């Protein structure tokens, strides 16, 4: 963990009259174009697509005086002095190669937001930032709930779906922001310097975008650069601690771990059903502060308790009192389709974790229950399932497989859990979910949990994971009707 005074490289940038190219329309591109135009920049938007939605967005921007080029995201507009890109645009795109050759800087919308905070003379709200392969949104929402319980003006923003640009340029003033950041966003945010930040976990994901696990981890690790107070890491995931060790932070910034076990000094953890803090207390060698009970976390699954500890660590780094951690966790309501208990039917619990769209998330979900009938499958996105199945084999009563890549899971089950009965549904229509739930009911016994934790993306059968979870819940309701 490097130490020393880290300079903030986000020097003021005068946008007046500058030619700025915005790469991509969509959720981030349109607000970025509007903000830049309002700052006096000459804005050109380039966009690969030329569909109806893009044309509607283009027409809105063109009425403001923004130039929009649809169907051409590869060519660098002549005279471009800065590119602001949507986070999903891959670094190897020809547009960025041309920008590099021309010496044109490339920022993401997060970098733009970071540079604009406090620009109008208001106090710039510090950022408490969260990244990781899984659990980001839940942790950020828990953190915002804790901060609000402490009486602070805050919002959960960033990759959670709420524009950071709106938060830093809008009329509302904040004391602190709870910020979710994806690896894409961090890649394009070189100047970001958070008050404190957490990397929750690291597992292979988005490797087609980053090119390698090493590059993916490096982009996640950017969240620690220049941290002022605390770099929060997962004691159970050594890769997150390694990122802290490699980070160049401000003098006095501390490494703070979270663990589901008993915490060492400078850690938060669990002791006899209590969430406790041995990091932000006086004489942490001898003392610990009770923050909340495990039962205050909803749902109290192991990975969700870890999320709560990470949120608590960030809040405590900002000086939040212990009572606010407890009150914030009690007030927190999980998003839909995240280990959501749907119903009990004939002594069997039915749980919707449709948000478990990769193997890492499914592993955490499967670890939360003792005897499971597992509904899984969908689009594998290049994933392999041997490690997941081997780890969960002893918990499986049975498995029901759906979706385009279900054969990959079936083969892993045959290798690592050959005694587990498997129902392979050879259909990918949306109605397959009702049959899957009926088959799961047939396999289950009282005391079991029927768990939808697909370990796969949903787009082969459903618009998104929300629709998949809705279909599961509806099928469960039909069982109990």
Short recap of the structure:
The protein has 481 residues and is of the alpha/beta class.
Write up this protein:
With 481 residues, the chain is α/β, with parallel strands linked by helices. It is built from 17 helices and 20 strands. The protein has helices spanning 26-38, 52-62, 94-102, 109-116, 136-149, 164-169, 183-187, 207-210, 213-221, 238-246, 302-317, 322-331, 359-366, 386-392, 406-416, 432-443, 465-479, and strands at residues 19-23, 42-47, 67-70, 82-85, 106-108, 127-131, 156-158, 177-180, 196-199, 230-234, 254-258, 267-271, 274-277, 289-293, 340-345, 348-352, 372-376, 396-401, 422-424, 449-452. The strands form three sheets. A nine-stranded mixed sheet has the order 7-8-6-9-10-11-12-13-14, sandwiched between helices.
